[in-house]
């Protein structure tokens, strides 16, 4: 049964972005957001720059963005990458966390979980400060980082929804 007030976003197959020479198309992903969250244009001037594939935001609840980065930046893996091949959760957050929050993640990781959905492994992290939930996985030759962030007040008021958004991320 579909929860009222939530919708599922799926990356369109024909959406451009992140296609350098030798890149395979980005494998579509999905996530759920409450009504009121809207897609926001991505600027290459943003933190994360050209690797940010998508942004969504709600003035009341928070923001999210999806980073799609080449796996080869993190590990020497050819072909269909799996997050486990890049490293254990601790290694992965140490490698990409600074790109997401703009600083070293040491002492900021409150929790780490490993989940599996449809045979794909996802690493899930909660960091503070700043308040951010990160869901990471790998597919094709790319690392997918799904990031949900909020101000202190938004975090306090909407944590349950923010966590549900972060937990809903899937690469198809």
Mean pLDDT: 89
The CATH architecture category equals: 3-Layer(aba) Sandwich
CATH class: Alpha Beta
Poorly predicted sequence stretches spanning 5 or more consecutive residues:
none
**How large is the radius of gyration?**
15 Å
Structural class assignment? alpha+beta
β-strand number: 10
Examine the coordinates and then state which fold CATH places here, giving the name of the CATH topology.
Protein Transport Mog1p, Chain A
What profile does the largest beta sheet have? 7 strands, antiparallel
Number of helical elements: 3
From the spread of the alpha carbons, the general shape counts as: globular
**Through-space gap between termini:** 20 Å
Helix content: 10-25%
What name goes with the CATH superfamily?
A: Mog1/PsbP, alpha/beta/alpha sandwich
Beta-strand proportion: 35-45%
Question: N-to-C SSE series?
Answer: EEEEEHHEEEEHE
The count of domains is: 1
Q: Strand order within the widest sheet?
A: 3-4-5-9-8-7-6
């Amino acid at each position: 049964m579909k929860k009222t007030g939530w919708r599922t976003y799926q990356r369109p197959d024909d959406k451009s972005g992140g296609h350098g020479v030798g890149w395979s198309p980005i494998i579509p992903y999905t996530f759920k957001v409450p009504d009121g969250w809207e897609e926001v244009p991505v600027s290459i001037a943003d933190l994360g720059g050209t690797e940010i594939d998508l942004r969504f935001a709600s003035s009341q609840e928070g923001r999210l963005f999806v980073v799609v980065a080449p796996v080869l930046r993190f590990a020497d893996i050819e072909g269909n990458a799996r997050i486990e091949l890049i490293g254990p959760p601790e290694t992965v957050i140490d490698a990409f966390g600074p790109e997401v929050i703009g600083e070293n993640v040491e002492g900021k990781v409150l929790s780490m979980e490993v989940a599996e959905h449809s045979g794909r492994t996802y690493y899930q992290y909660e960091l503070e400060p700043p308040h951010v939930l990160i869901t990471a996985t790998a597919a094709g030759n790319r690392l997918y980082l799904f990031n949900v962030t909020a101000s202190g007040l938004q975090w306090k008021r909407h944590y349950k929804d923010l966590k549900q958004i972060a937990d809903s991320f899937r690469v198809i």
